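REQUEST ID: PR-0412
SUBMITTED BY: lab tech R.K.
PRIORITY: routine
TASK: structure prediction, single protein chain
INPUT:
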Amino acid sequence: MKRNRSFWYHLTAFATVAVWGSTFVSTKLLLLGGLSAEHIFTLRFMIAYMLMLVFSLSRGHHRWLASSWKDELLMMGLGITGGSLYFLTENNALNYTTTTNTSLIVCLCPLFAALIIALFYKSERMSRLQTVGSLMAALGTSVVVLNGRFVLHLSPIGDALAFGACLCWAFYSLLMIPASQRYSSMFITRKVFFYGLLTMIPYYVAFPEFPPLSLLLRSDILAGLLFLGCVASMLCYLAWSWVIKGLGAVIATNYVYLNPVCTIIVARMVLSERITSWFLVGTVLIITGMYMSARRRIHQRG
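STATUS: complete
OUTPUT:
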């Protein structure tokens, strides 16, 4: 029974990251369609929150607040690190640095997450085998992202923003540990969307412009927003909370290494981008490294 449940945790983690990998393509199409990065984030979280709220109420989950003000602050921290601040730093990094730099820095967040989590939780510290596996997966991610072009253009502002996004997701993974121990995935996910939207208010006070309704109702724009809101946000954040509860934050976050692989596969199907031998080599390194980093944990849980 435990092995069967572990399989479903890993499968869900893979499926979630696969969807998140495809969001880079969806977001790119929406940006080309006339939306800004801030508008895309706000609209996808608005859709996700409304759906999550309706779903929760229909299931009889009428809880609005956490058990204490400290836990409520914890939920706000999740909304900031996994929502508003993460997306603002990641998307705005593209305005100052290359896509390659941004992708490479952000996709290395499992390493930073493992280091930060290890400072607070001994039970989440990696063994030597897991460390080697994580480093191998990180190397594979670098190979996939760089794609044979081993030249990085340094941009202090853009690279700092990308690194900020990386740290945001690392701290999101850290905060998810106590949250998942005390609250349901449904409650946590709804709170993430709520505080993600709430902490965007200062941005709209400074920049009150919003896209016209005629643009939002265009079929291609509406389809992209619904995918990001319903699937990539509501379903995936809900699934990710469940996965972290089952696998632990370090093992779950390692699946982020697969993000660029999924992005390139979707880009190949949608945008006809070419898959190179570097992609294949990097993918093998990522899968091998992830297997090594998860092997001891699977054995323990099995």
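NOTES: The first helix runs from residue 2 to 33.
REVIEWED BY: pending
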